[in-house]
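Posted in: Structural Biology > Protein-Ligand Complexes

Title: Requesting predicted complex, heme C in pocket

I'd be grateful if someone could produce the 3D structure tokens for the following input. Sequence and ligand are given below.
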Amino acid sequence: MRSIVMSLRRVVAAVALLLLGGALLNVAAQSRPTRPSRADARATAMFEQGRRVFRMDTFGDEGFWSGTLQLDKAIAGAKHGGVGPGLSPAAALAAGLKVDSAALPKAVVKAIKAGKVNLKDPATTLALLKLNAVVGVRGHFSRDGSRLTSVGLTCAVCHSVVDNSFAKGIGRRLDGWPNRDLNVGAIVSMAPNLKPVADLLGTDVDTVKKVLASWGPGKFDAELFMDGKAFRPDGKSAATLIPPAFGLSGVNLHTYTGWGTVTYWNAFVANLEMHGQGNFSDARLDNADKFPVAARAGFGHVRNRVDKVTAKLPALHFYQLALPAPKPPSNSYDHAAAARGRSVFMGAGKCSSCHMPPTFSDPGWNMHKPSEICTDSFQADRSPDGMYRTTPLRGLWTHTKGGFYHDGRFATLGAVVDHYDSCMSLGLSSQQKSDLVQYLKSL
Ligand code: HEC
Ligand code: HEC
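-- Reply #1 --
Done. Output follows.
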């Protein structure tokens, strides 16, 4: 009997010791400074490399924008070795280009604040380009720095804005935010030599200029250079809104019409839209009925002697997937209404049957027939599969300018909700609709 008590005591003591030891070990594990592992360091390096590519890399597209179109000459102006009046900072900002305040030396910041910088003088634009302060536009200069010799574009020109913390259009970079102020058409239209674009599209320069003028701010037509269709059947521009490049991880197919994955599209854009020097393969573009321009130009099988794109794709992909959608400011929506709107989104509105949280796109094959969302098939038919991709909805608040759906056909979120209400015969009350809008603003 005694020995049993003794051994029980021993067991209790042993268990207590074990528990204590465990707790101590835990404390030790928690208080030990976490040194980054090699995998962490690799991830950080890849993130930073991808950010550099996203912000700074032109993939050698200077050959197109300067060598062929001579955009550099229009930016510099006749006084500085180019042609025409040149591009003043005021005009650049009006066209939606952004200035990265972090790239400005203190003396320049002081001079701007003191009103001593002439924002009407193209020479100031050249100085900003030399500082690498114009978001998404890279300038290269002669050795003595006196002459702009070429310019190139980066992803950031369309997919970044600034926080306007210094002045309107001047501030810290916000990567991934769609630049809905940017008038791509107006900027391209400045180029002195648009003949190569006209030749590619099988038309004349006047028509190219008309098409570029039809886009307006925040829009670009990536498919124009595949199918040559510049206008919809109703006569309006066929351009689409620039979408965000954040909040894309976990989403299967990308672009409004699901051309492919993020890395597919990155390679597509770097080669076929920015005209970087790389390699690209997509035999779907050989379909001359659907993609006459691309098939004629051999866009499905691009090979360059030096490939300045492919090696950058892994880090670029990694960086984009690491960009979360930014949270809306707390005071930008009605919290109680948003909470009620969430129930509508998940329930009576049937929204989450396609826009499933947390990505707010469909897990898996995220494509739908135009009839499922009661829209026309024009843009869907310009893509390989003839469908629309369920747009991931996080960060909607960052791009209310320009409207919603691929072409901005709905000016407000209320109009989007009304569309679904009639399309799917939801019978939502006006309270449910306005709650739903507040929920969308909260994403
Ligand atoms: C001239 C403006 C412009 C430039 C430069 C540009 N993009 Fe885009 N981007 C667009 C437009 C417009 C779309 C929508 C295309 C579509 O759906 O047909 C788009 C779509 C995307 C998408 C798909 C987003 C989604 O919701 O699925 C990604 C990813 C993307 N771009 C990344 C990039 C990267 C990376 C670069 C640089 C290699 C780049 N873009 C350069 C205008 C641009
Ligand atoms: C059948 C699948 C499906 C359902 C159900 C659905 N959506 Fe969509 N949603 C889509 C697709 C596809 C698009 C892209 C349409 C386009 O760009 O032309 C889209 C686009 C949107 C957009 C525009 C996003 C942008 O950035 O332009 C909003 C907002 C939206 N949906 C909200 C809702 C709400 C709210 C509901 C419920 C009332 C809902 N959706 C139900 C598939 C769906």
